[in-house]
Model the fold of this input.
Amino acid sequence: MRVDKWLWAARFYKTRSLAQQAIAAGQVRINDARVKPSHELRPGDAVLVRKDQLQWSLVVRALSDRRGPAEAARRLYEESEESRAERERLASLRRYGPEPASFIKGRPTKRDRRRLEALSQRLSEEAG
Done:
């Protein structure tokens, strides 16, 4: 069975085209190797799926080319305990709020640099 079809049936991606894009971007690995969306998947294969900051480490238990309910989709794979624990840890951290620097992209602008310099100067005056 094709990897993109299985990822869609296992409910990791909403559409097969999203699954294909993720595979092409290297976010899905099978047995620690990059694959193409048409790669044949077999029961027992180790699959690593990364979406945003989350990561699943799975072992394929069954194959299905139909997208069913979530309960049926969970029977298609078995997640490792380490993977589940790490996802739960990240979820608990997200409850406290976003990462402070998550919105910052690239280098600071001139305005940002001036604000940083003013802040550091004010802090040094208060400390000294």
